[in-house]
Amino acid sequence: MGQPLNLGIVGLGAISAQYLRTIDRLPQVRLVAVADLDLDRAREAVAAYPGVDVLSVAELLADPRIGAVLNLTIPAAHAEIALQAIAAGKDVYCEKPLAATGEDARRVLEAAQAAGVRVGCAPDTVLGTGTQTARQAIDDGLIGRPIAATATMVTPGHERWHPNPDFYYVPGGGPLLDMGPYYVSSLVTLLGPVAKVIGAASRTRAKRTIGSGPRQGEEIPVTVDTHVTGVLVHESGALSTLVMSFDAVATKAPNIEVHGERGSLVVPDPNHFDGEVLLTRLGDDGPRPLPVSAGYADAGRGVGLIDLAEGREPRAGGTLAFHVLDVMESLLASAHEDRAVNVESTCERPKPVALGGFAPRD
Predict the structure, then answer these.
(1) Strands 53-55 and 207-209, how do they pair?
(2) Which residues form the GFO/IDH/MocA-like oxidoreductase domain (predicted)?
């Protein structure tokens, strides 16, 4: 194995703790430095990781030791930080979405191509054993030709638990842009890219009340759709029905189901890396669990960095993330314009992940 990839992290918010735990388990990656607008928060985040420098954002982006930047800023800042890192000649791995708008995401990919650097992007949950075992079942023909899928995410809103939920209710947020990347990335991994969408959306109230933390009881404005539904027409001809809601209370629907001519799969929560895959074949009395057959075992957020570190085009990559963002923006355009919308972008179905775990760090 060659030298590990030297990594810098920009943005040390709540999600960073999960990334730090994974990075600490990856021998392919060495965390060199972190940066945040709040330096005290950055210091606190890496207090348990000795030897990691705490720098300003400008210092980190200019640091010649760093080969890749992990961008964990808020969605509105994703493109700006990514473009600065690319301009410094560094690979970028970004928390989802790739950018707040498709236009900004395109600028990121074009800049990366011109600079000869690579772009990865969450969610990398699709690389875990849950989605990958389901993909293996589809590729092995266990359900026959795929014809349809459903994807359902229902929650009454993140303001009930998040102390600073403002960004969920401004452009770049909402249930589709927040949680949709997990579901749409999984659907593209399972069924391939999307050619056309038909959507509808609603917004039940203009304000939300924060339910926890020092701002509890404060009202925040809602400027995005909070219930989005639609149909994704995959290039393969399969039809996926999507429901993303910050309005509804609960559901018993599986997170994802995939239906084929000879069987149906229940796919685990795409916000998680693992979970049980259930198969019901034509003539079966009921579903049966499939043995884990593919994907990174015991994975966590940041496992997508392995591809960057090992010199491969990331499977949780910028082209996939751009297509997923394009699908979501097209779905919202369809809802607002009351018409079917063709998805202009496409991507290759990401390469599968063989079953395996992590090598222990020395």
Answers:
(1) unpaired
(2) 132-266
